[in-house]
Amino acid sequence: MTRMGCYGEHVLPRIINLACGLKTAEPLRRRVCEGLQGEVVEIGFGSGHNVPFYPATVDRVAAVEPSDVGWKLAGKRLEASGVTVDRTGLDGQSLPLPDNSRDSALTTWTLCTIPDVYAALREVRRVLKPGGKLHFLEHGLAPDEHVRRWQHRLEPVQKRVFGGCHLTRPVVNLLTTAGFTITDVDVFYEDGAPKFLGADSLGVAVSP
Ligand SMILES: C[S@@+](CC[C@H](N)C(=O)[O-])C[C@H]1O[C@@H](n2cnc3c(N)ncnc32)[C@H](O)[C@@H]1O
Question: Are strands 102-108 and 84-87 parallel, antiparallel or unpaired?
């Protein structure tokens, strides 16, 4: 195994598990999961930090996650949950789900990392029923120019260290360009995070 392979496969998922498991993220996770219902697909499931916040209106979740270590680290959260979660696919760019089969979709801090983000959004649109909702909580391009300058400077390092994570993806723009209608969005800097990393967009986008 290469050094990068070992880092990406074994070390990075554990770092992500710790970084994504911060208590400060919990109110945001609760907010983004509000209103999820029925059959759900979650892309970039990671180690399942959203699982405790799935509302009772969720019937079942198809979890899409490339990392075996991430999936393993989700074990305790999955055991403690009343919701059935099936690992369904390894790549948000190609979902092994039928067209128009999901009521809701969820993505948290994942659109930054998927290489072809438009392919992933096309896939989410394909599997959502007409009018189905994508709930999103994503970091991306900051609203302020001076923060953006730092994001552009730091992005190459961020991508190398954090498995391809971009700092400058314009979240709302991506979603509207991909054909979603945004019905609700809050753009803010996350408490306790450096601004270049914590420029978040939280909301709901409807598939046509
Ligand atoms: C920063 S983590 C966020 C994890 C989780 N969504 C959370 O909020 O705790 C980004 C996740 O995206 C996953 N990921 C990377 N490439 C992906 C792809 N092509 N399709 C789906 N998920 C991917 C990573 O393995 C990682 O678990």
Answer: unpaired
16 lines ligand 1 (CB under 6 A): yes
C-beta separation of 132 from 97 below 8 A: no
Token readout for 139 is: 């970091």
User: Average pLDDT for residues 7-33, to the nearest whole number?
Assistant: 95
Ligand 1 and 43: CB distance under 6 A: yes
Rounded CA-CA distance 41/85 in Å is 9
Q: Which residue CA neighbors atom 8 of ligand 1 most closely? A: 108
Ligand 1 center to 163 CA (angstroms): 9
Give CA–CA dist 172/193, Å, rounded. 20
Cα–Cα distances in Å, from 169 out to 59, 100, 158, 166?
32, 27, 13, 6
> Ligand 1 centre and the CA of 190: distance in Å?
19
Ligand 1 centre and the CA of 117: distance in Å? 12
Residue 147 is inside which H or E element, if any?
A: helix 145-161
pLDDT in tens, 170-192: 999 999 999 999 999 999 999 99
